[in-house]
Specification:
This is DUF2264 domain-containing protein. It comes from Arthrobotrys oligospora (strain ATCC 24927 / CBS 115.81 / DSM 1491) (Nematode-trapping fungus). Helix 3 runs parallel beside helix 5, helix 9 runs antiparallel to helix 10 and helix 9 runs parallel beside helix 11. The protein folds into two domains: about 350 residues, Glycosyltransferase (Alpha/alpha barrel); about 260 residues, Distorted Sandwich (Beta-galactosidase, Chain A, domain 5). The chain contains 16 helices and 19 strands. By secondary structure, the protein is α+β, with helices and mostly antiparallel strands. The strands form four sheets. Strands 8-9-10-11-19-16-15-14 form an eight-stranded antiparallel beta sheet, covered by helices on one side. Strands 7, 12, 13, 17 and 18 form a five-stranded antiparallel beta sheet that branches. The protein has a four-stranded antiparallel beta sheet with strand order 3-4-5-6, with no helix packed on it. The model has no long low-confidence stretch (mean pLDDT about 95). A hairpin with a 2-residue loop joins strand 1 and strand 2.
Length: about 625
């Protein structure tokens, strides 16, 4: 069976289109509801928490959209089942009782969408319960003394209390204040909050769309009448953050694939949805029409990704196709429905400027093509036909699956998604794209950058450069300079590495990846012949061109590395299930300088024009900056 995409064919242009899209995602859940409607079982894969909590996810996360749908005056025939499910799930005497939350329990996460639902659609959900059921829900939400991770999780307890307060029920006001005051300590400036205390270095989509900025804005709207000072503070942070966050998107609607939890898919645009929900006017050039376009274009892009859905129309664990390798250990079959938070604009009326303003394109002419963002440690550029970032700061604060791939690579793109490791002992399974990997011997594991010992952004001769030092293996020290594209050579970025080692090592440096399927017959890429898809490797360079674009890597130094195009392990890439990666392979006895040029040109949807330009672009190599040559000479 071919996957079924419920969004396919929906123009996603009007409020009614948006509501139809929401309903089309809710409808496939009905057959998976349990008899008492308190859980949704969408699959058999496991997660780090218990099966009941996994099925609660399946019930609770769609509420992000259902609540907004009902608050906006729309109806859905399955709504009453979810109301009954709330009453049964919180009832200790019902066979579908969810069970009381323990310390660091996943159940507390799902209290957030339920609390939001009670706050904005209380006339349907809260008033749909009898007095005993209301008391059960309040008791279920009593997690005041429970231990929670020192991260965005604290917002979930805030929203549990917020849902009760909006319905005039007893709640813990003091706990709410303590949690929000502590969450304020995560703030770093210019709108950015870290996902945790100061010694954490995670500023990914959790800082904006998935949790912190998103929930700040929902709180500002829901509680602004009783907490106006804090509400305005959150809105002002959003205005600042928006001026940075817009750079993570491309003109075609796609967002840069970076960080964890990307199985949440179109939750990546949740921040723009929250801006509309909270009625926050943003600074120029971010008009309501621009915000609307950012959100809707992203949904339209997802409407063209059939593999993001199962044959029955439910969301898959994965990015654009089912993929357990890229998942996190907290991803159950219901987890992807965190994506439904992007339907928050349904709660605002039809005469809101978000809906009445004409959709506007990405504000390319009004913002720089390349920008350095201090707080996340990113340099982001739209030069070269895709939006991508260079990164040298972030890491996960706990042993996350594939953490080095999700945070430690040199570059992350909207068009060329990153790959994750599928094994330990072979280069091709270690996801070497956009990395410099090292190993001590043929039978040893390949190691890459997981964290930076030091990092920073420096402006050198007018260009922002990312500089980091890192230690992939004991006795191996590497200093890396990442240089964004120049306007003269927009498809190239430059990496410079100074490597010292106490014993001989082998190295492998990768570019972005492209589809390992050629046009016409979908066969594996063969040797490149002019005008056709293919790949080649030789001394000092490697290149591949296929249906998804053209990528290459060149050694511009004096090390004579060998170029090779490597078949990546299947299902390692987030975007494409079969990919090939151009690599430079080398060896170092004690010390070396690597000067690496990385080329990337994405395919143009519906056009082959890009195929006529890539050869000239690949031949026109960027110049190594004089300052870099000076550093290497010393």
């Amino acid at each position: 069976m071919k996957p079924f995409n419920p969004l396919a064919g929906n123009p996603l242009a009007t409020r009614d289109d948006f509501a139809k899209a929401c309903i089309s995602l809710l409808d496939p859940l009905i057959p998976s509801l349990t008899p008492g409607f308190g859980a949704v079982k969408l699959g058999e894969t496991g997660t780090r928490y218990d099966e009941t909590a996994a099925q609660i996810e399946g019930y609770a996360r769609p509420l992000w959209a259902l609540a907004a749908l009902l608050a906006g005056g729309y109806k859905w025939e399955g709504a009453q089942k979810f109301v009954e499910g709330l009453g049964n799930g919180a009832d200790p005497e019902h066979e579908e009782y969810w069970g009381a939350a323990l310390d660091t329990d996943q159940r507390m996460v799902e209290m957030c969408p339920i609390g939001f639902t009670l706050a904005v659609a209380g006339d349907h959900f809260w008033e749909g319960l009898n007095e005993r059921q209301k008391a059960n829900v309040a008791k279920y939400f009593d997690i005041t003394e429970k231990e929670m991770p020192n991260t965005n999780w604290l917002w979930f307890r805030v929203f549990a209390n917020l849902g009760l307060s909006k319905n005039g029920y007893t709640y813990d006001h003091d706990r709410m204040e303590k949690d929000m005051n502590h969450l304020d300590t995560f703030y770093r400036g210019e709108g950015w909050s870290n996902d945790g205390p100061r010694d954490y270095t995670q500023m990914d989509y959790y800082s904006g769309s998935f949790a912190i900025q998103y929930l700040q804005l929902l709180y500002a709207k829901i509680a602004g009448g009783v907490d106006p000072v804090r509400a305005e503070k959150f809105k002002e942070r959003a205005r600042l953050y928006a001026l940075n966050f817009v750079y993570y998107f491309h003109e075609d609607g796609r967002a840069i694939a970076f960080g964890r939890s990307l199985t949440y898919k179109f939750a990546m645009v949740g921040f723009w949805a929250a801006v509309a929900f909270a009625d926050v006017e943003l600074p120029a050039p971010l008009t309501w029409g621009v915000v609307k376009g950012l959100l809707l274009r992203n949904l339209r892009w997802w409407s063209k990704q059939p593999g993001a859905f199962t044959p029955s129309g439910t969301l898959t664990i994965g990015y654009t196709y089912p993929n357990q390798f890229m998942s996190d250990n907290y991803n159950s079959p219901g987890s992807p429905y965190w994506a439904m938070l992007s339907f928050a604009p349904l709660a605002v009326p039809a005469d809101h400027p978000f809906w009445t303003s004409p959709e506007e394109p990405f504000p390319s002419a009004s913002i720089p093509q390349t920008v350095a963002l201090k707080h996340p440690g990113h340099i982001i550029t739209r030069l070269g036909g895709h939006t991508f970032l260079l990164s040298s700061k972030q890491q996960c604060h706990y042993p996350l699956r594939a953490a080095d791939a999700k945070y430690g690579k040199f570059a992350y793109s909207s068009a060329f998604a990153y790959s994750v490791s599928t094994g330990s002992y072979s280069l091709w399974s270690s996801a070497p794209d956009s990395t410099l990997s090292v190993t001590y011997g043929d039978d040893a594991e390949w190691k890459t950058r997981k964290k930076c010992d030091t990092d920073g952004i420096e402006v050198i001769e007018g260009t922002s450069v990312l500089i980091s030092t890192w230690t992939p293996l004991e006795g191996v020290g590497i200093k890396t300079w990442l240089i964004p594209p120049a306007e003269e050579t927009p498809n190239w970025h430059i990496r410079i590495h100074h490597i010292t080692t106490a014993r001989p090592i082998k190295t492998a440096e990768g570019s972005f990846t492209v589809s390992n399927e050629r046009r016409g017959d979908n066969r594996e890429l063969d040797i490149y012949a002019e005008g056709n898809d293919g790949r080649f490797g030789s001394v000092n360079e490697a290149f591949a061109v296929s249906r998804s674009g053209a990528v290459g890597i060149v050694d511009a130094g004096t090390t004579n590395r060998v170029g090779e195009t490597m078949n990546m392990d299947s299902n390692s890439n987030l975007l494409l299930n079969r990919t090939v990666c151009p690599l430079l392979l080398g060896s170092i006895e004690k010390e070396a300088w690597y000067v690496t040029l990385v080329y990337a040109l994405p395919a143009e949807e519906g056009s082959d024009g890009w195929r006529k330009t890539w050869t000239d672009g690949y031949k026109e190599r960027p110049k190594i900056p004089l300052w870099a040559a000076t550093i290497m000479s010393h």
